[in-house]
User: Fold this.
Amino acid sequence: MVVDDEKIIQKSIQAAYKSENMEVTIASSGKEALSILSQYKFDLILMDILMPDIDGFEVVQTIRSRQIHTPIIFISGKSEEYNKVLGLGLGADDYITKPFSIALLISKSKALIRRTNVYSMITEDLIVGPFFFNQKTFRVYKFEKEIQMTAKELSLFKFFMKNPKQVFTKEQLYHQIWNNTAIDDNTIMVYIKRIRSKIEDNPKNPQYLKTVWGIGYQLDC
Assistant:
C-alpha cells in the first residue's frame, strides 16, 4: 500500500511496482490508510509524512499500536536526521528521502518482504487483521487490547486465525476442536456467539467472524 497524497508519486510508484508484478493499493490520506488496514493485509506499506489529515508519524504509531507488523518504509521530503530517528523509533523499517531512486526503493521493498516472509514461517505468533495470538502465552489481542476467553474459545478462535478467509462447516469445526464426529449444533452456535460477543463491535452484525449461510463460518479479515 502506498500512502501519499501526491498523484505523481502515486502513479510513478504504482507503475514501478506493477512492472515487478506487485499489486498496489493507493491511500491518499492517513485516515484512508487506517480504514483500509482495518480490512486488508499487505506485504509492505510506503508512508509519506506530510498529509492533509493525519501525518505519517501518527499513522505509523497507530498501526503499530494495533499490533500490525507489516514492514513500513517512510518516503518523505523531510531529510533532517531527527525525522529519520523519529520515524524508525515509531516502528518503521526504513526511511527514504525524496527525490529517491525507484530502483533502490524496489530493491529495499523486496528485501523487506523476503525478510518478513522468512520470519513469519518461524514465528510462533498468529497475526490476522487486528488480531494477535501469542501461542507461547495462549493469549489473544485485538488492537493491542487483550481479549479474555476460555480455553475452548481460544482453541476455536486460534483455529480460525490459522485458517483466515476459509469457510468451515459445523461438522468440520466440531471435529477439529472437540475431536468428535457426532456434531452438536447447539455447542457450535453457543461458542460462535460467545466469541463474537468478545471480538465484534456489534455482535449482531459481525465484521470478522461471519456466517456463510448454508455452509458454515469464516474469519474474514
Notes: The two ends are 16 Å apart (CA to CA). The chain has a mean pLDDT of 88. Residues 2-122 form a domain with the Rossmann fold fold (CATH 3.40.50.2300). Residues 15 and 21 are 10 Å apart (CA to CA).
